Amino acid sequence: MANGGGGNAGNDLLFVILVLVVLSIVWLATGGIERAKNEPGFFLKPPAPLGSDAVYGPSFSDGVEGTARAVENSFSETERELERVSNETGRAVEFGSLSPYHGMVHFRGGVSYPGASNPADEYIEISYDGGGEARIDITRWRLVSSISNSSVVIPQGTRIPQSGAVSFQEDILLSPGDSAYIISGRSPIGTSFLPNKCTSYFEQYQSFYPRFNQYCPSSVDEMAYAQDQTIRNSNACYDYVSSLSSCKVHTGIYPQPLPSGCQYFIENDLTYTGCVRNHKSDADFLARDWRVYLARDSSLWRDRREVLKLVDAQGLTVDVLTY
Q: What pTM was computed for the model?
């Protein structure tokens, strides 16, 4: 029995050796070790070295990193789109060389009614808010659109406009606290000007935008300036004058009886010229907001995505407005 078992074991061993030899021949015939070098091997991804914290295969951190990369790519795409949309604006925002008036004179608010069909409604305000004590001459300064390349020069004006006469032209000077409305359209009175206590008389037949904010002397208070003493003391004249609107030239029929001197007072003192004569020495006679007209027949500024520069007479940038 023992000899029979030993023979079976030997046969089994010879069979195993034969199988290994056949497999070796097949392996060598198909490329052997050279093929093993080029094959990725059993693992799709080589295992991390022993002792490292890395894990084999996908992990939670891989998912987070992938999401982060996707979000980053989305942001990058959005940034590229914004850059494309605002490219022309972005190039125009640069200040360039700064004026010595930078930080002293600047835009206040934005353009009112930009692109308006009526250029009289389109205006922009600049102000001299401080940083100096001397007056600043803004005549020959320019407003420039960096987008459309429109450019206009700030003209001269008159401090006290004349009624029915050509007004003396002078440079526009701003003192600290002063401002200027720069209006695209034409002046209703033919010139840029500084409003005063009496300019509301012009509004009887002309439209101004923005409206004047100055106090207008009441008609009855003007009786104190009547040259005729009897008129100042006349109850009939007082009663009639008190019924008249302030800063409006009388156009109606005079009631009877009315002292003739009262009619003379109404026609000579209750006018723009009479008002200026009586009040030009008042401390609050002049306003502080110039009305500067660019005399254009169409709007100057884009209704959106505009870049405006205020440039001084030397071509240096005072301020920039974007909207």
A: 0.70
